[in-house]
Amino acid sequence: MDLQASKQKFIDTWGALGSEWGINKSVAQVQALLLVSDNPLSTDEIMEMLTISRGNANMSLRQLLDYGIIYKKVIAGDRKEYFVAEKDIWKWALKIVLMRKQKEIDPVINVLRELEADTKKDRTPEGKEFYKTVSEIQQFSEQLSLLADKVCNSNRGELLLKLLKVIM
Amino acid sequence: MDLQASKQKFIDTWGALGSEWGINKSVAQVQALLLVSDNPLSTDEIMEMLTISRGNANMSLRQLLDYGIIYKKVIAGDRKEYFVAEKDIWKWALKIVLMRKQKEIDPVINVLRELEADTKKDRTPEGKEFYKTVSEIQQFSEQLSLLADKVCNSNRGELLLKLLKVIM
DNA sequence: CTGAATTTTCAATAATTATTGAAAATTCAG
DNA sequence: CTGAATTTTCAATAATTATTGAAAATTCAG
Predict the structure, then answer these.
(1) Could you tell me if A38 lies within 8 Å of chain B, comparing CB atoms?
(2) pLDDT tens, B82-140?
(3) Where are the alpha helices (DSSP H) in A25-53?
(4) What gap in Å lies between CA B128 and CA B119, rounded to an integer?
(5) Spatial separation of the C-alpha atoms in residues B123 and B145, rounded to whole Å
(6) End-to-end CA distance of chain B
(7) Is A77 helix (H, G, I), strand (E, B) or coil?
(8) pLDDT per position as a tens digit, A5-39
(9) Does residue B4 belong to the interface with chain A, where contact is any CB pair within 8 Å?
(10) Contact B124/A30 with Cβ under 8 angstroms?
(11) Contact A118 B146 (CB under 8 A)
(12) Residue A84 forms beta bridges with which residues?
């Protein structure tokens, strides 16, 4: 298998993995393409290499910029925008974790807190049982959320490595 | 808000969270329903309470049994199957983590290993660069995968708690 | 065994999500 | 400023995924 085919395989695999975890396939593929590209790429180049439409390429790039895992790169004398990927896996992986936590987990934690509050005073056995279940899930989620924050805000996840050694 | 409404809100929230993470909404809702139900439920009761079809209820239940996060419960003198949820959040959360890791992450790690092997001998600057990128992602993923195994196989994630204290 | 109760399967359909591509908006060299 | 180059938007459409529901398969009380 030549290098080009290997790159393509990487891009496809990455796209499939993204899909399974609720990340748009094109978004994942664009990141993958930029990760394995030696030079910055323009929207037109990305469209061509992934055979996707301009609209799709544009939206995928905006989302990745939004996540903070790719950057714009200005090329002198060229009016087009060029893009490069953040290559430090710790940086971008942690950014994705933090972003998804904030957008998807934290709102759920808030709902759980509300449900906890709403049923705290319920004295029926059924009410007490529900309160207990929700409380446990709420506390568990909150601990994980806090853990994610701590790990992501420590520089380059060195702490996580330290941890790995404690565990293993 | 009364208890019934609170339960419904929990079920809906759980379903929405599942969707965002690539878990079928019905599957997530069935788990949620069983989590907040005081007694074992039959397929018919689940169908009625979630207003989903028999086929959907059946498939969702099978998947949850497959994950090992709900159990069958036999009720004497009743031919129907009844189901209860694993209530220990550590148990079921870790089972989900482990299952998704095995089905979705591990195959990707294997592909990354292949790509690493395929390009190890490439001496072009482009080839070296690709090898380096893939290697980093591969090693990172492998470390995480290993971490997940260790955490999931230690009884009731006590180690994780120990960790939490080291970090925080 | 028998057949009613129950579970499972799966083709058809509905619902959701992703993608296109052309029109509108914006940018910026001259 | 002007207008060509570039980017963005978004309604229409395609692709994917979820759900239904009835037929087939299975189970088990009698």
Answers:
(1) yes
(2) 999 999 999 999 999 999 999 999 999 999 999 999 999 999 999 999 999 999 999 99
(3) 25-35, 43-50
(4) 8
(5) 30
(6) 36
(7) coil
(8) 999 999 999 999 999 999 999 999 999 999 999 99
(9) no
(10) no
(11) no
(12) A71
